[in-house]
Amino acid sequence: TAKVHNVAHPMRLAQVTSYLRENYEVAERRYAVAILAADFPDEWADIIEVLSHFRLYRSEILKPGGRKSGVATRIDEALTHSGWSEQRFETKIVVDDAILESPTHKVDCFKNGVGLEIEWNNKDPFYDRDLNNFRLLFDLRTVHVGVIVTRSDELQGIFDALGRGDSYGASTTHMSKLLPRLEGGSGGGCPILVLGITKRLYVED
């Protein structure tokens, strides 16, 4: 069974399907799973459906890198078929009569107040961007739950065996880079669920 972090209550643990618990490394903050199950059941069902059908293919790991990985693209496209879409948020700060522009905040997959980011093989500061986005957009009552799909550290053994270890280095996005940020409160008050792809999903195609 894959690792499950900070989902101690049996009721909450049951809301993460046995398939996800066995095939993904799971972490949450601020009751994200309970909120998804109770307040966003359709969006939670979409996430469960897409991740339950996801597989990590050998050919995809061996394929030279590009702007967006095949892993991220497949998950993104599957969610798009269920009504999710990329969402850009233009935010401003108004002080008396002065309007101060703030950076545009983009969420890769968004539906009905649930934001989902896929971090397969980016530089690890992308986690800071995601968590800061979730924090700000939660405070603005726009994102109610944030979800990050990334990779478990244990996949490094597969990358090394395939001769692709250098392409998935220590400074790229994987669970041990994300969890300290999550535990340090980088997401602010936003409930956040993290799912790390494990070697159980690997397929020799």
Structure write-up:
The chain has 205 residues and is α/β, with parallel strands linked by helices. Helix content is 39%, strand content 24%. It has helices spanning 10-15, 18-23, 32-39, 41-53, 58-62, 70-80, 125-139, 156-161, 175-183; strands at residues 4-5, 24-29, 56-57, 85-89, 92-95, 98-101, 105-111, 114-118, 145-151, 192-197, 202-203. The strands form three sheets. A seven-stranded mixed β-sheet has the order 1-2-10-9-8-7-4, with helices on both faces. Strands 3-11 form a two-stranded parallel ribbon. A two-stranded antiparallel ribbon has the order 5-6. Helix 7 links the parallel strand 8 (114-118) and strand 9 (145-151). It is globular, with a radius of gyration of 17 Å. The two termini are 23 Å apart. The model has no long low-confidence stretch (mean pLDDT 88).
List keywords for this structure.
205 residues; alpha/beta; 7-stranded mixed sheet; two-stranded parallel sheet; 11 strands; globular
Fold topology:
Elements: E1 4-5, H1 10-15, H2 18-23, E2 24-29, H3 32-39, H4 41-53, E3 56-57, H5 58-62, H6 70-80, E4 85-89, E5 92-95, E6 98-101, E7 105-111, E8 114-118, H7 125-139, E9 145-151, H8 156-161, H9 175-183, E10 192-197, E11 202-203
Parallel strand pairs: 1-2, 3-11, 8-9, 9-10
Antiparallel strand pairs: 2-10, 4-7, 5-6, 7-8
Question: How is this structure best summarized?
Answer:
By secondary structure, this protein is an alpha/beta fold. Helix content is 39%, strand content 24%.
